[in-house]
């Protein structure tokens, strides 16, 4: 296929340039995606904020809306942000979002008035609500200066704003990201307990060679503001940056009414949309899809909302089992949700997927960088002051000469020239050699201030400055000293966070096996009937009895937690869970689902002949045996319970019978009970010959291994069997074995026409 080209004009040289169209489009799309991600949707790894969130907090900082300041109208903040920092439309939704403590464990904005709550009640208009920075928001912007973090021009190049805040806590790990969707990038990061996350950062700073398992032992796992239970592999998430969890709410039994359940916690992503959830559940109840539930009502109080709790009462039908009702709510409603995570964050302007250890390394390095920059700024400030102090200490001895110089010069600049020794004046009383900074400080002082210079106090200040400079140099040059300082600072934050109520986790952690066991233990099991017709269509209904006709070849009665087992002529047993099958209504005339579609993932193409349909529960019944006969006359029987046919986990394919070579195949497979083994016969037919023996005469094997013994055909005789049947005594022409109905068979007797196979 020819490569697509495009023509681009080189404006500088006015010449056409040929480029590959596919590559140009890919590059343009990538550049656009990165631009959107870096300017709109993906948080910075260092402070955990998206650009609009950072600009909102910066605008509030510039407006001096500290935690102790008076609240200011949200509309004022929105207008300031839109006019000066982020002109991409109304940002009130983002202001509202930053107040939500059911999203952020450390919400950076404190709201006054009606903001969106956990139930989903929307925020009032911006002209009615007020905001200011919370303690956690203020902590993000403390010590904000261009000497600590990089700044950039705003959108119209009239102001400067920070690219990142000098965050002292691991905010991205603590607050996470509920959702961030850019062009080609998605960011969803789990929130964590603030105390655990801060303690982990402190420990990592002290021991950078920390293992992932050690980090997990400190962090434990995600801790969602809405509580609930999280099932999944936290180690895989922290190791790869990608995770998939099941997040379930919490349901408790009512102490006041035996027919009432109370939902006290909801999944994280349901926060802010509980009203919508209630409407959906009420619709399900009205449609009869939640028959055990009579009603659902919300009794959540303002106190509950403040603590990210809910009180939703679920009224059950009289005496309905509570565990079954809880399972129904988890299975049929959004009270248990899939929680997919991808740890995407900005490294500078580039989106990058982080693992836990990569994140810790990045943030720890940033903390070291902040300390170095902090003390470099302090070193610069102290050195400048020391330089001035050194000059001022000389003032008492030179005061008359300085005053004389001031009286005989034209202005400050001229005086500074004299003080620096760059210029002399007539009758100069002393020789000066002050630095420019010292000269500026002295020239800026009034005469009465010169008279009040306290040399002794300045000498003491000089000693303090020299000590301060020495310590600053040590912090800049000695990593171990920085580690000690950072550890002390983080310890202070941990104490403060504990006082704020973050000392204990809100979310219970469980693994997937625990969830599966819990679901299996309390799953709602319903009886079903499965029919398979002559064309291979499988139909599952909730009927107890079904009408059979010539089209129906197999009828299986079981429950919907069972597995359907298909034995094929090539010796395979294929398995599917009935939970994956569509359940048809009793009056539905649909033929069902084609076996080729149901078993497509098992590698079944429809070409292999099916020799038996059964279920896992039938295989697992005590005393049940299976009889297998190949067309070469090999036969065996063995107990199915505890055999390789009763796998502990659902497997797509199991080798049920080892076909010896390509010319042999399974001709007959049947489940039989102990009573049937004692009284039934088995007959093999080849052309006009047959051999009939007691079913008990088929050799019983200790296991499923092997192809069996030569039972019906002599090894020297190469002719294959045509059919095999089981008969209930000499006069029986119809037989049901293990719930499977066989077709009618005429009674066969010895005669001159029919002879026994030798």
Automatic annotation (TrEMBL):
* Record's keyword annotation contains Nuclease: no
Alphabetic keyword roster = DNA-binding, Isomerase, Topoisomerase
Catalytic machinery residues: 128 (o-(5'-phospho-dna)-tyrosine intermediate)
User: Could you tell me which residue ranges the Topo IIA-type catalytic domain spans?
Assistant: 42-524
Under InterPro entries, the record lists: Gyrase/topoIV_suA_C, Topo_IIA-like_dom_sf, Topo_IIA_A/C_ab, Topo_IIA_A_a_sf, Topo_IIA_dom_A, Type_II_DNA_Topoisomerases
Answer yes or no on keyword Kinase.
no
Q: Which GO terms describe its molecular function?
A: ATP binding; DNA binding; DNA negative supercoiling activity
Q: Which Gene Ontology CC terms are recorded?
A: cytoplasm; DNA topoisomerase type II (double strand cut, ATP-hydrolyzing) complex
Q: What is the catalytic activity of this protein?
A: ATP-dependent breakage, passage and rejoining of double-stranded DNA
Per the record, the GO terms for biological process are: DNA topological change
| Major enzyme class | isomerase
Return the EC number. 5.99.1.3
**Domain of life, per lineage:** Bacteria
Q: What is this protein called?
A: ParC protein
């Amino acid at each position: 296929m020819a490569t697509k080209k495009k023509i681009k004009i080189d404006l500088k040289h006015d010449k056409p340039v040929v480029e590959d169209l596919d590559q140009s489009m890919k590059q343009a799309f990538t550049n656009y995606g990165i631009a959107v991600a870096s300017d709109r949707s993906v948080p910075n790894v260092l402070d955990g904020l998206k650009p609009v969130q950072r600009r909102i907090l910066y605008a509030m900082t510039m407006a001096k809306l500290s935690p102790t300041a008076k609240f200011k109208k949200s509309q004022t903040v929105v207008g300031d942000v839109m006019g000066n920092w982020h002109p991409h439309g109304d940002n009130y939704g983002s202001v509202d979002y930053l107040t939500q403590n059911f999203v952020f464990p450390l919400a950076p904005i404190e709201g006054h008035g009606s903001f969106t709550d956990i139930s989903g009640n929307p925020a009032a208009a911006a002209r009615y609500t007020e905001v200011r920075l919370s303690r956690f928001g203020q902590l993000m912007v403390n010590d904000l200066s261009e000497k600590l973090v990089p700044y950039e021009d705003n959108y119209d190049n009239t102001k400067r704003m920070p690219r990142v805040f000098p965050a002292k806590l691991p905010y991205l790990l603590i607050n996470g990201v509920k959702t961030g969707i850019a062009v080609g990038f998605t960011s969803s990061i789990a929130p964590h307990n603030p105390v655990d996350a801060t303690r982990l950062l402190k420990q990592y700073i002290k021991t950078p060679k920390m293992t992932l398992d050690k980090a997990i032992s400190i962090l434990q796992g995600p801790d969602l503001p809405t509580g609930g239970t999280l099932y999944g592999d936290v180690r895989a998430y922290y190791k790869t940056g990608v995770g998939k969890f099941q997040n379930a709410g919490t349901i408790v039994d009512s102490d006041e009414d035996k027919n009432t359940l109370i939902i006290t916690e909801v999944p994280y992503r349901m926060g802010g949309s509980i009203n919508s959830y209630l409407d959906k559940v009420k619709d399900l109840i009205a449609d009869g899809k939640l028959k055990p539930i009579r009603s659902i009502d919300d009794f959540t109080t303002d106190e509950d909302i403040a603590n990210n709790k809910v009180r939703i009462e679920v009224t059950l039908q009289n005496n309905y089992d509570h565990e079954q009702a809880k399972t129904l709510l988890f299975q049929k409603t959004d009270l248990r949700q899939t929680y997919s995570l991808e740890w995407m964050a900005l490294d500078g302007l580039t989106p990058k997927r982080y693992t836990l250890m990569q994140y810790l390394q990045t943030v720890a390095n940033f903390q070291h960088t902040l300390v170095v920059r902090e003390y470099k700024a302090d070193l610069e400030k102290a050195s400048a002051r020391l330089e001035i102090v050194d000059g001022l200490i000389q003032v008492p001895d030179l005061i008359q000469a300085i005053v004389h110089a001031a009286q005989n010069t034209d202005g400050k600049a001229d005086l500074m020239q004299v003080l620096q020794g760059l210029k002399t004046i007539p009758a100069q009383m002393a020789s000066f050699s002050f630095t420019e900074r010292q000269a500026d400080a002295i020239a800026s002082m009034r005469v009465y201030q010169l008279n009040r210079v306290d040399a002794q106090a300045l000498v003491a200040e000089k000693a303090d400055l020299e000590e301060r400079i020495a310590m600053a140099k040590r912090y800049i040059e000695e990593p171990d000293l920085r580690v000690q300082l950072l550890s002390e600072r983080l310890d202070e934050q941990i104490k403060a966070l504990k006082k704020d109520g973050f000392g204990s986790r809100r979310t219970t952690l469980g693994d997937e096996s625990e969830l599966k066991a819990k679901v299996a233990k309390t799953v709602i099991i319903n009886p079903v009937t499965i029919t398979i017709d002559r064309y291979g269509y499988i139909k599952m209904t909730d009927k107890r009895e079904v009408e059979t006709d010539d089209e129906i070849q197999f009828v299986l009665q079981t429950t919907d937690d069972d597995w359907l087992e298909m034995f094929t002529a090539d010796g395979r047993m294929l398995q599917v869970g009935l939970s994956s099958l569509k359940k048809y209504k009793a009056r539905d005339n649909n033929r069902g689902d084609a076996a080729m579609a149901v078993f497509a993932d098992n590698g079944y193409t429809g070409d292999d002949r099916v020799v038996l349909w059964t279920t896992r529960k039938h295989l697992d019944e005590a005393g049940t045996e299976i009889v297998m006969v190949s067309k070469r006359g090999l036969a065996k029987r063995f107990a199915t319970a505890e055999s390789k046919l009763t796998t502990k986990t659902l497997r797509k394919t199991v080798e049920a019978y080892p076909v010896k070579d390509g010319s042999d195949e399974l001709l007959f497979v049947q489940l039989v009970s102990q009573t049937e083994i004692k009284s039934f016969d088995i007959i093999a037919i080849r052309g006009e010959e047959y051999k009939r023996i007691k079913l008990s005469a088929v050799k019983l094997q200790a296991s499923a291994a092997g192809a069996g013994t030569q039972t019906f055909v002599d090894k020297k005789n190469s002719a294959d069997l045509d059919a095999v049947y089981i008969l209930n005594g000499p006069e029986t022409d119809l037989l049901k074995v293990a719930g499977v109905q066989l077709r009618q068979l005429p009674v066969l007797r010895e005669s001159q026409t029919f002879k026994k196979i030798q």
